Amino acid sequence: MATINTNYQKLQAGYLFPEIGKRVRNFAAANPAARIIRLGIGDVVLPLPAPIIDAMKAGVDEMARKETFQGYGPEQGHEFLREAIAGHFRGQGAEVAADEVFVSDGSKCDTANIQEIFAVDNIIAVTDPVYPVYVDTNVMAGRTGPAENGRYGKLVYLPTTAENGFEPALPSGHVDLIYLCSPNNPTGAVMSRASLQRWVDYAKREGAIILFDAAYEAFIREPGLVHSIFEIPGARNVAIEFRSFSKTAGFTGTRCAFTVIPKELCARDGAGVPVPLHSLWNRRHTTKFNGVSYPVQRAAAAVFSPEGSKAVQANIDYYMENARIIREGLAKAGYRVHGGVNGPYIWLRVPEGLTSWQFFDRLLGEANVVGTPGSGFGTCGEGYFRLSAFGFRENVE
Ligand code: MLT
To answer: Could you tell me the domains of the chain?
Structure first.
């Protein structure tokens, strides 16, 4: 009989968001009259803006004509999109070349898959709380021991809490791969420039690689904050960056994202010889992925046009006004709240005496509001709760 990858048996529970979905479906079935407000999974609600839809339609029209029809595109993405992305980075003060951009169908997939190009004995550091994809994919790949008290053996956890201002401290020893997410999912906090510089310097010293998830950078409101790790001197030698159109431009159902791997970025092979990660990822990407659909890439490129970026910004403003309403409303109600200023998530302390899941059940049962229990993101998330700003204004109010 065939045998399974037993690493899957180490996984602690179902993936967080399907688990929440199941509880909400059960509640809705038992309470058919309840009008449920969903601020759990960070999923956009506003339709794609007109300039983006127009570009997508134009792409569809091109597919309908013999002269402009497109078959397989380049796996890494069409030149027009990769150039537009590189130009956007330059505008943010980050040096990125178009051929360092790999267009994909999502940052969830990219942050999940990137670990494949690294050896199984790499030591992995994650923040706690953390986006569960980084952890679960390393569990599946066999880089961890079994779970005990909510934490996997061999993983290095970096507590990121109100007590340390949501700035993870550097590991006390050596690690090889570090997942950082800023603005952070779930806490909504943004890492400071000084702290990112410390991480880049650590990575240089230790020969480590930073896997920088910037899926929420477009939600940064305050000037002077870091949008791209490549704004930090030295980062091109130590970091990979992930970005997404999902939240930025409303593409959760449309699917488009990208990963940037600088050409000079290397990790060592078994003989200690430095190997460019760009070429390894290119090998993986071209073997396992056949590119994002042409009309979707046309739509994504329109995000960087003057009309497109204005329309996308208006939607971001809408969500961030939601965030303000949630944050200030909860603070007025006596809750301790974090995030929601430069990121679309509000991270609140649950009332004394309740666990995160107990608060989830109470909020759903009494107010018919869905959020995400902090403990679903790690042991340091216990006692916290995440609300997403991606909702309709009337519901948020
Ligand atoms: C979240 O709610 O954390 C995100 O929507 C999950 C994701 O982007 O995969």
So the answer is: 12-47+307-396 (3.90.1150.10), 56-305 (3.40.640.10)
